[in-house]
Specification:
The chain has 409 residues and is an alpha/beta fold. The protein has helices at 10-26, 36-44, 129-137, 174-184, 207-216, 243-250, 264-276, 331-337, 374-379; strands at 49-60, 63-70, 87-94, 97-104, 118-123, 143-150, 163-169, 191-198, 221-227, 257-261, 284-286, 309-316, 319-326, 356-360, 363-365, 381-382, 387-389, 393-396, 406-407. Helix content is 22%, strand content 28%.
């Protein structure tokens, strides 16, 4: 957690905020200067591009796979390449609210070659603001806007051992499907064991497909399905993915790299289980799960603020706008609700695309997913997607070029 103005260095932090605020008030009305770090990020990643849905397949009663190809009028000549385990950032316009969500690519990198495609496999959530809309309105022929591919949860032979243990929950199986297909086509020389947790056995995503691939390559691929609420007919392991289950099915911990992808609740449960196994941090790769469903469940969150609403003064170049913000919603969500588009990808504090400047005010930052550099922390930069207001704020977000958001039709 980081709360500006509430640490032992409160006086110094307050002084720096006063100085920044004074500089902004005395600044000449000149065009906004591009942030060099932002410019570097733009150079490393492609701009948004358009895809068309060419096929939709129902995988389970709560899950669909969408096959995506380049839209007919796309400026790109071919789909951007990616590494198994990366994600696309989907950008949609829902009744005037511009929303960005990351979804792991469930198809294999080799599928983009030639007249290639991506596949996104999306699981509906009962309270999922976007997934409910997608299930209802995404049809064959729909055009969607995306950016990417992004993400760091892929195999890299310079950092990872070639025996991987994957721990997945719910739709967190999607990047592992991509990795498994690359192994099956001999594009990746890995040994992979996946422990996959689902609530019910009839909601196991890709159950038959992955079982068949594992059966063909038993020395390379192993998939263990675990149900937390099984029926009386279930014969596999049940409950949650514990340290004991990991040791039972993955074998000795030594000589392995661990990839983890799933919902927030799974990450919270696994924290103690992983610690008990004494796995070095350098051997753990986590796909960030996006913004938490309820930030007040974080033990470090200051719950006395949970019912409060604040004002955020937003500076964009020479423009100033004031918006309302709930203490339990990230600054990014508050900006989006107000119609202010901030370029974002991961929504988890990792990528830095939404990086902005805090001029004054107090914020809560979840230190478990705080992806800022040391210099950013020192000079007051923060990531709106992983920060929550604890007072009125004044912030400066970078000026940006037009970002296309596809309306859902």
């Amino acid at each position: 957690m980081e709360v500006y103005g509430r640490s032992k260095d409160m006086a110094q932090a307050s002084k720096m905020q006063r100085e920044r605020k004074k500089r902004w008030k005395n600044a000449s009305p000149v065009p906004d200067v591009e942030d060099p770090i932002k410019e570097l990020s733009k150079g490393l990643h492609l701009k948004n591009f358009q895809l068309i849905i060419t096929d939709i397949k129902e995988v389970t009663k709560t899950t669909k796979t969408y096959r995506l190809k380049l839209a007919p009028d796309s400026e790109l000549k071919r789909l951007p390449l990616f590494r198994a385990g990366q994600y696309l950032s989907v950008k949609v316009n829902i009744d005037g609210v511009k929303v960005t969500r990351p979804y792991s690519i469930s198809s294999a990198p080799s599928d983009v070659l030639g007249d290639g495609f991506y596949e996104l496999t999306i699981k509906i959530k009962d309270d999922g603001f976007l997934s409910l809309e997608l299930f209802e309105k995404w049809k064959t022929g729909s055009i969607i806007s995306v950016s990417g591919p992004h993400g760091n949860m892929y195999f890299d032979d310079l950092r990872d051992l070639n025996e991987i243990v994957g721990i997945a929950g719910g739709s967190g199986i999607t990047p592992f499907r991509s990795i498994i297909h690359e192994i099956a086509t001999q594009k990746l020389d890995l040994k992979l064991t996946v422990l996959y947790g689902s609530r019910y056995e009839d909601d196991i995503i890709f159950a038959e497909e992955l079982s068949n691939l594992a059966g063909k390559l038993p020395d390379k691929i192993k998939v263990v399905n675990i149900c937390s609420e099984p029926s009386e007919n279930w014969s596999g392991p049940s409950g949650f993915i514990t340290a004991e289950l990991i040791k039972k099915y993955a074998g000795p911990i030594e000589g392995k790299t661990f990839f983890i992808c799933g919902p927030q609740a799974m990450y919270e449960f696994l924290e103690k289980e992983i610690q008990s196994l004494n796995i070095p941090n350098r051997r753990i790769r986590r796909e960030l799960y996006g913004q938490p469903d309820n930030i007040t469940m974080n033990p470090k969150y200051l719950v006395e603020f949970k019912d409060k609403t604040f004002n955020i003064t937003v500076r964009i170049g020479n423009k100033i706008e004031t918006i309302k913000a709930s203490a339990t919603e990230s600054v990014l969500v508050s900006l989006e609700r107000a119609g202010i588009v901030v370029d974002s990808q991961c929504r988890s504090g990792e990528c830095g695309f939404c990086r902005s400047l805090l001029i004054s005010g107090n914020i809560f930052i979840n230190d478990e997913i705080d992806g800022r550099r040391a210099g950013d922390k020192k000079f007051g930069f923060f990531h709106p997607c992983s920060s929550y207001p604890l007072s009125d704020l004044e912030i400066k977000i970078p000026s940006f070029k037009f970002v296309k958001f596809s309306p859902i039709k």
